Amino acid sequence: MFGKAVSLIVAACASLVSAGDGCTSSTGSSLSIIQPAMGTTFSPGDSIKVVWNIVNPSGSAYENLPLTLQIGNAVNPLNVVVVASLTTSPASVYIGNLTASATIPSTITAGTNYTIEAQYKDVSTSNGLVCFSPQFAVKASTVATTAAAAAAATKTTTSGAANVFGAASVGAFIAGAITLL
Question: pTM of whole model > 0.70?
Fold first, then answer.
């Protein structure tokens, strides 16, 4: 008996936090993030447009609520972990804006289960509500890949002579020998 109840509770919780489901305030209004679209792929530094709809709008009090946008790792939709806050344009985002732009931070690592997390306070109860976008991917940064390759190409020794091999930022190779006295 308890096993079935637990299964029902887990299923209900999963539907509340699954990407794209939106969230509902005490007034019956809900926010549903529709962009970025599921399966979209970005790179660190890319511009991202976040778009949402208001379902069952309850008036200007709801539309004037401030909204905080963050990127979350949704590999486990029951425990989305915020990995970065977004600096948005406009700087102050409200539910009634229905859109905001931001840049994928350079600190985001490659992965396929990212989501935009939107947080706001309920207009009547002041309880925090959290809404999620459909999941999207972030591919590896070419800057990080180049830096890793340069680090791997660098070799130094300290026994009598040093051989230094490295990649310059323009892709030229530098090779030299230093004789220690």
Answer: no
